[in-house]
Amino acid sequence: MKTALHSLFCRLVIGLAWIAGAAVLVMMLVTCLDVLCRLFSRPLTGAFDIVRMAGAISAACAIPYTTAIKGHVAIEYFFHKLGRRGRLLMDAFIRILAMLLFAAISLQSIIYGTALRSTGQVSATLQWPLFWIPYVIAFCCAVTVGVIFYNLLHPGKEMIKP
Prior knowledge:
The chain has about 160 residues and is mainly alpha-helical. The chain has one domain. It has helices spanning about 5-40, 45-70, 85-120, 130-155. α1 runs antiparallel to α2 (about 45-70), α2 (about 45-70) runs parallel beside α4 and α3 runs antiparallel to α4 (about 130-155). The chain starts with a helix and ends in a 9-residue tail after the last helix.
């Protein structure tokens, strides 16, 4: 049974996946445009800045969706050697570790973003502020903690069907 909160959370995860896809599209378009402009000896100003920012956004925003569909690579050779109870315990232990890891990454990203904001750090060419990128990463990691928690409560089920 799906609750309104579950549906809202799924929409959030899918929305982040769309943002990741859009960021990949931006990287592709900017790179192609830069190559075309270079043919006329007029490279696209700030192409590296845009591609770098879009790359960080695409990677961060894709993690919750990939986790929700259980799309990560897993090495299950030793896992299947365990009995049912051992697999459940090992799965729970690994998920709790993953939640702690993503929570720590989220916290550190907030700290880093705050430091970038206080120092006024900007991109090299376009001079765009950079503090918001670690905040996006922190948000995506926090959403991933929620997805992993869902997976912990519902073993054997993916949160979203791919």
